Fold:
Amino acid sequence: MARVVIVSQGDEVISGQVVDTNAAWLSARVQAAGHTVVCRVTARDDEAEIAAVLRRAGEWGEVVLCSGGLGPTTDDLTASAVGAAFSLPMGLAPEALEALEQVAARRGRPLSSLAQRMALWPAGARLLRNPVGVAPGFTLEREGTLYAFLPGVPSEMRAMYDQELHQRLVARGEGPSRLVVIETTGGWESKVQERLTDAPLEGMSLHYRAKIGGVQVKLRGPASMPTEQVERVAGGVVERLGPWVYAWTLRDEPLPSLAQVVGDRLRERGERLAVAESCTGGQLAGRCTAVPGASWWFSEGMITYSNAAKTRQLGVPDALIAGHGAVSGEVAEAMASGAREAAGASWGLATTGVAGPDGGTPACPVGTVWIAVAGPEGARSRRLTLSGTREEIQQIASAAALDLLRRAL
Structure:
């Protein structure tokens, strides 16, 4: 297993004008090849700075993957920076020139003198063919480190990596590391970590990723770790996290969303759902209808933002709203029951709250949300005290409402 450093370059990348999707994609592919990414670096369009980064990257890793700067313009400085970094003479590389001439011939035009700059390489460089674009890439071995230089255009970079480089990295690795992905909701990152503080990991490493409405937990282990051992460690972690876990897998594959997990359970039971939303403004219904096949289990959604709408569409009594306030457990439960009854559904979900940034009071500050679920055995509600932007509060509230139903099923 090699230590890999990923280097991106370009003023537009480091300034934030362009999002560096190349580095993220390469990181995933490197791990799939059985290696570890130890560092990602971005350099400006400056030859001396790129050269310094490349020298340092060789100290950090046995493989260095660099994207960008292979074109013919004056700000494409990768090849010259490589020459400067390792004191290598520059010259026209016959194999790169031939590759460029082939592209030009396919396009029915001669190779321009400007385009020939893309074949000006440091001594010792070896060709990486570009199957979908023009600029060729190259590799270079220096003091036991493999450097690979790929185009910055994402489609060209990905095609070149997959066709020319991935299998070489697979041959250097021991296979993909063992991975367990666990999706949770309902517990903050610190609380999730507390439950796993002394969990027996048997050589696996533990990683957390906080997301709006949940925490993703990952376990990584060496490729040689037996499946039985991975399952034992994963099972112990899942058991400690308890009902916070709504999906997990032993493979690097997409997991179902919280809404899909809820929908699958409803479909298995032959039951349907209706939702009534105030503060989430349709996000709860949106999460449900984003799931393919939602028509099997989702009946309808009602956005009852005003008090009058709550009364007219859901049958919430005016007196209940006047007595408890629109943001209350009593009103949330009446909304959920009203949605269930109006749609003839098995279950009703409701949200009501103050998403902000204004509208709060000392008794009901911004971030106060009530969620409720109504089912065959009655209704119950839960108060949430949230923080964040308006959109974040809406997203967390809609996730919490789905989780309330998941735990009731």
